[in-house]
Amino acid sequence: MHPTPPHTNRLLAESSPYLLQHAHNPVNWQAWNDAAWEQAVTENKLVLISIGYSACHWCHVMEKESFENEAVAEVMNAHFVCIKVDREERPDVDQLYMTAVQLMTGHGGWPLNCFATPDGRPIYGGTYFPKDKWTQVLHNLSAIWKTDPDKVYEYAAQLTEGVKRSELIVVKKDPPELFAKTLSECWKGWSSRIDTEEGGPQKAPKFPLPNNYQFLLHLSQSTLLSDKEREEITAHVRLTLHKMAFGGIYDQLGGGFARYSTDMLWKVPHFEKMLYDNAQLVTLYSEAWLSNPDPLYRKIVFETLHFIERELTSREGIAYSALDADSEGVEGKYYVWTPEELELLCGADFPLFSAYYSVNEIGHWEHSDYILLRKADDKTIGESFGLSATEVANKIELLKEKLLRKREERIRPGLDDKSLASWNGLLVIAYAQAYRAFGEERFLLAASRTATFLLTRFRKADGGLNHTYKNGKASINGFLEDYCFLIEGLLALYEVTFHVQWLESATALCDYVITHFHDPESGFFFFTSSLDKPMITRKMELSDNVIPASNSSMAKSLFLLGNLLEKNHYLELARHMLLQIQDEIARYGAGYSNWGILLIRMLEPLTEVAIVGKGVDEMRRTLQKHYFSNVIFAGSSSSSDLPLLKNRFQEGQTFIYVCRQKSCFAPVSTPEDALKLLNESDEI
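Below the sequence we write its predicted structure tokens.
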């Protein structure tokens, strides 16, 4: 039996794994709720908002050093109302106080610790604090609050005004038209910051940032750039995808990517594995396969989806959020190996395994631990051992299976077993794109299953979505990210199935978003619903990061839906948003890459492919094995009222209609003829 913990606070009643991690701290933590804020007002105390997530290594460090310390907890409890926030559960709270801390310190991250007045206005904050520094901060803030509260309120008012100003969008009344030169300017600035040896940006740490490379993939196929620019971009994308797949950031045994590399070599990962990263990377490698069918891309997609199915998917079929970086309190312990362990398991094949996975000075990390990573392909390795590439691949596969079984005997990293609508929406996109690229029916089934779960178990009575799900219960009113990524997933599903219910569900959610999130003044969308209780300001997401901005995602879906359904209102909303953002794409493309994809789609001639008739599925699968940067698909096996399909069905016949810029070629009856039309010039 486990001994009874000496302390228990109110977080024990929560479902978030991150909050539950702190349920037995001596700190009197509370969740973000009205009761906590009412207590702050009643007792006239400053509020500590401490934000993190379950897989955050430095969150664990600060907990161990400070929040488990009785003396530190005594000071916190005496002078502050202490609120713990799971940033993944409450991204709205995280965004608000992250902005405040960034304004104060010039940087942000997690753990995020922000102090506020009893009415929620921020006054001081930072990220990780060592224990002595943390104790000093607590004493200083409690002293100034006691002796000079007016000064605190004065600063709170100034900082809150700064937070509000950071959200102001100065709407251009007469913005310039969309320009192709924006894309050239974007690449010119971007190319000055790339790592031409290892791929990615020329800095550390290195984050995968999948959307950056999806944009560059689109850009590399665009006729809006010169041949030289396209060649440069293609080389950079291929180098980056190859280096990430060979690096320590990728789990060479079990599949899936860690959140980032701590160095410029993609060697030493920060070992946490997030659903949002892996879903987006599956989408990226699937799209890359369509333009360049490299067997490595296929391997990454299949192994990463297998990892998600094996380690991040519940029995109900919905995906969990993350795996911790730590195991037994040690970062990376679950994933690294000593040469002695490997030699015992690999036996006579240890020299081959060591050469293949760099169990040498290249793969050495710290102490006697090695990170498995690759430097050479199967053919090159085989030449050193007198083996063919196929023989090497077969031997390595058997050794991987053996080591993975052994690794699974270790104590696993902590699992964050809440499920988020937004991240599962990204997974729907990933499964749909993987199905399009590789034709595996199980990927399509997984996409459909996940989408159906989100549309039923996460659904509210008014047609909206909840944000999170655990233990059979959905909760927390949905944020814009929940809607936009699910809408994208539904549209991806429609394009690979032509099942109209996905299109109808996407449209219903889109209209719900316009009703509850749209800001008529700026033309953009708030992150929180009009139904949510107001905070000190209502934020918007505009710049793309490790996850694309919810506004750029919505703009892309409005553009796609607007064209599929011929809804000019949707198209006007998307165009207005992009016109306001265009200058930012030129200035800093890496922060506006999803907007960049939309810019390409709006500038290039849009091609519509409508397939109608009994052979629709086979023809769709044949055509969609190819990469197209600006083609939308619609189809039906019977008569349909969808604008792109209306009056095009002919009994007993299957026709493919290819239209560009609202002008159509004569219908054709084979995918081969359709491909010829798709590859012809823009002139009809």
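The mean pLDDT is 95.
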